[in-house]
Specification:
The structure holds 2 protein chains of 2 kinds.
Chain A (H helix, E strand, L loop, with lengths): L20 H7 L1 H26 L4 H13 L3 H12 L7 H13 L14 H36 L4 H15 L2 H15 L22 H38 L2 H8 L4 H39 L4 H10 L3 H29 L2 H4 L4
Chain B lengths: L4 H11 L4 E11 L4 E12 L4 E5 L6 H8 L7 E3 L3 E6 L2 E4 L5 H10 L1 E4 L13 H11 L5 H14 L4 H5 L8 H12 L6 E5 L7 H18 L2 E5 L3 H7 L2 E6 L2 E7 H6 L4 H8 L39 H5 L5 E4 L2 E3 L4 H10 L9 H4 L8
Parallel strand pairs in B: 3-9, 3-10, 7-8, 8-9
Antiparallel strand pairs in B: 1-2, 1-4, 1-5, 5-6, 10-11, 11-13, 12-13
Helix pairs in contact in B: 4-5, 5-7
The chains are: A mainly alpha, B alpha/beta.
Chain lengths: ~350, ~375
């Protein structure tokens, strides 16, 4: 077998060498994704600004009018006060306001809350956002991994009783709206069966517990987060199961799975590296979209469970017409979707080598 | 891994027992329409160092037979009755009775199957090297350096640039490169038997040449025991020692390559040979078998070929012929093989129609 023959090297990467540095940078997957993400962030920021300013019933003018009529301040003072709140000079032309807003946003200055005087919007967001990230993150991570596992099980045991039972549950879970699941958890678990102390679980931490890397804090965080996490888990797991099932079934029919069997590979290796890895690829894109929806949907869930995350803050801001806070939270929610997509893209390119090829053509 | 293929072959010749014996193998698929009889009673011995070609139309049961040897049929398929005896050294096993782990060991190490459409034969998210290592490790060979060296040699043998291919992802390789890479992987564990299912289909004619050249070297230099499954008569003519024609799940004719192509005794084999076009020859002699392959759920009575056969008589409609010896190691299942012989005396196969023009790189899919 060691006979040497004239090898015919067929160029595998024909384009790799000739490109200039700048072109290859622009063509690289990461660079394109970063640029795209930055552009999206810019658009989102701009839209948030103009939404507040151009909506019918301009909130700034309304605020000024309110101050004038209710508190009897002179229009000029009212305008100054409002300008201070929004952290923009409303006497300037719109485009200058816009640039000032962009600059401030870039530095993380989102203005002050209109109702809690003296607190910045950024500090409110920083205080509440981690809880939403924690609950949504854990909920989705659990439902994603467990859902994928169950989906594969359903595909491998197709048409068995376990498949039928799980399919029914998955369909039910994925079709009930999240806020109904939340209400059902409260009504059944908390009130009718009294399985969980609903009252004690309110809020994101028990009084007196200080954040830190200790068991008291972590267990308390999970105790308070259990119901929102459970709701995110239940509402999203059905979709993962069904997607993974269909994806696994089609992967099982692929030639490379048959060839892997013919090569005598162990079933465990085929299930993980050959079937599982390929079947899960489309789910990662869905995960990114899902993160956006769940963060946006946390508005209702956190309100239902009185969980102090960014969603509940948004609920409060809307109820009390705290426009600056709303503007800040909208921005954060949209950015979370943008960044979730960015990381999903990176993850995708890492698990699917074919994506990188796209950058060369 | 210690013995070379040649030594295996010598062992087998001393024992005079073929490494693979199929006895009366039936394969049925349960479908909604009914029972699909894909293979119906195939008995076949594959001798050490021999290369056997299975030819026939699509749906004649060639691939099903190949897959049943490595037991990779779909779960709806049933292989019974029948035995598939495999022999290596003093070991003799019925492949159909192997346990899951024994079967796993048998696959690739004893009997490797190179599949049709190598385009999708590789896991798209793993590098070629990872898949090679997977294969070696699955059979308890975990010395990475040794595996790597062995595989680099094999890549050289299949005329690929070893260092490039080994680190490439499958999508970075062309179809012909993937086919050759798969061929290289199939040789990794020095299997005793190599089954090649349509090894050149879907490749351009020059790449086909390369593959055929490689297989020829495997046969002539390494004395591999091989089964080719192909509807391309050119490959069969060029690479096989013996050829078996399959029709409706049965072997209807089997014999040495020369005999089968120049003195076919079954009307179906004759039809297949006459349907091969020549590159420069006119079309006057070109001939197609009328009708289409039989419905495997509702097979015709008697000889399954009778509705399409110009020699058919009432006897053919009632009784199915068994294989009958018509020459030295040449068997045919036809009531009228003598008529075929007479027909051939009147209209001999134009010399070269099957073989030499086939060598001139003609590929035809007989339908």
């Amino acid at each position: 077998m060691a006979t040497t023959l004239s090898t015919s090297p067929i160029s595998v990467f024909p384009l790799a060498k000739k490109q200039s540095w700048a072109r290859s940078f622009l063509n690289s997957y990461l660079a394109r994704k970063v640029l795209k993400t930055l552009f999206t962030v810019f658009v989102v920021t701009t839209l948030t600004f103009f939404l507040v300013h151009l909506l019918p019933g301009n909130p700034i003018e309304q605020m000024v009018n309110q101050l004038v009529t209710v508190q009897g301040i002179s229009p000029k003072d009212a305008r100054d006060q409002v300008a201070a709140l929004f952290a923009i000079d409303i006497n300037q032309p719109l485009y200058l306001q816009y640039f000032e807003y962009l600059g401030k946003t870039f530095r993380g200055d989102l203005g002050n809350s209109m109702l809690s005087q003296g607190t910045t919007v950024s500090s409110i967001i920083l205080k509440f956002l981690p809880w939403t990230i924690f609950s949504v993150g854990i909920g989705l991570l659990l439902s994603f991994t467990i859902g994928m596992g169950l989906g594969m099980l359903m595909a491998y045991r197709r048409d068995s009783w376990i498949d039928h039972v799980l399919t029914v549950f998955a369909s039910i879970f994925s079709s009930i709206p999240d806020y109904l699941i939340g209400l059902m958890l409260i009504v059944w678990l908390g009130i009718q069966w009294k399985l969980v102390p609903i009252g004690a679980m309110r809020g994101s931490l028990s009084p007196g517990v200080v954040p830190g890397l200790n068991w008291t804090f972590i267990s308390d965080a999970f105790f308070h987060g259990a119901l929102p996490i459970g709701t995110y888990f239940i509402t999203t797991i059905g979709r993962w199961m069904l997607s993974m099932k269909s994806s696994t079934i089609s992967t099982l029919g692929e030639d490379y799975v048959t060839v892997a069997r013919a090569r005598g590979l162990k079933d465990s290796r085929i299930t993980t590296a050959y079937v599982g890895r390929n079947a899960s690829l489309p789910l990662f894109t869905q995960l990114a979209i899902s993160i956006g929806f769940v963060v946006g949907g946390s508005f209702l869930i956190e309100t239902i469970f009185v969980y102090q995350g960014i969603g509940a803050s948004l609920g409060g801001a809307i109820a009390r017409r705290d426009y600056t806070l709303m503007q800040g939270i909208f921005l954060v929610i949209t950015l979370s979707v943008v960044f979730a997509n960015f990381f999903a893209d990176l993850l995708y390119s890492w698990i699917d080598p074919r994506i990188k090829l796209g950058s060369q053509s | 891994m210690s013995k070379s293929n040649l030594e295996w072959q010598q062992d087998s010749t001393q024992n005079q027992k073929p490494p693979l014996s199929l006895q009366n193998v039936y394969v049925n698929y349960g479908t909604r329409k009914g029972n699909v009889q894909a293979v119906r009673g195939v008995t076949l011995d594959l001798y050490a160092g021999e290369s056997l070609a299975l030819i026939g139309e699509s749906g004649s049961g060639k691939t099903t037979l190949g897959l049943s040897i490595v037991r990779l049929l779909a779960s709806t398929a049933k292989v019974e009755p029948g035995t598939i005896i495999y022999r290596r050294d003093q070991r003799e096993v019925d492949v159909l009775k192997l346990s899951t782990s024994e079967l796993r060991q048998f696959r690739w190490r004893d009997c490797a199957m190179v599949f049709q459409s190598a385009l999708n034969a590789f896991n798209p998210v793993l590098r070629v090297w990872d898949q090679v290592l997977d294969t070696a490790q699955a059979h308890g060979w975990s010395d990475r350096t040794a595996v790597r060296e062995r595989f680099l040699d094999l890549l050289k043998f299949v005329q690929l640039d070893p260092t490039r291919v080994i680190n490439a992802y499958p999508h970075e390789l062309s179809g012909g490169m993937r086919q050759r890479t798969l061929l290289a992987i199939s040789l990794l564990l020095e299997p005793q038997i190599l089954i090649l299912d349509e090894p050149t289909t879907a490749l351009d004619i020059l790449t086909q040449r390369t593959i055929i050249g490689l297989l020829r070297r495997l046969k002539e230099e390494q004395h591999f025991t091989m089964i080719f499954i192909s509807h391309d008569l050119a490959i069969a003519a060029e690479l096989a020692d013996r050829v078996a024609t399959m029709y409706a799940g049965r072997i209807v004719e089997i014999g040495k390559t020369y005999d089968l192509f120049y003195q076919p005794r079954h009307p179906y084999t004759l039809g297949l040979i006459r349907a091969v076009p020549t590159v420069l020859g006119g079309f006057e002699e070109l001939f197609s078998i009328p009708g289409s392959p039989p419905d495997l759920v509702n097979l015709p009575s008697g000889c399954k070929f009778h509705p399409r056969c110009s020699f058919a008589t009432d006897k053919c409609k009632q009784q199915e012929p068994e294989l009958e010896e018509v020459g030295e190691r040449h068997f045919t299942a036809c009531w009228h093989w003598q008529d075929v012989e007479k027909e051939l005396e009147l209209h001999p196969i134009r010399r070269g129609a099957a073989k030499h023009d086939a060598l001139a790189q003609t590929t035809v899919e007989v339908r």
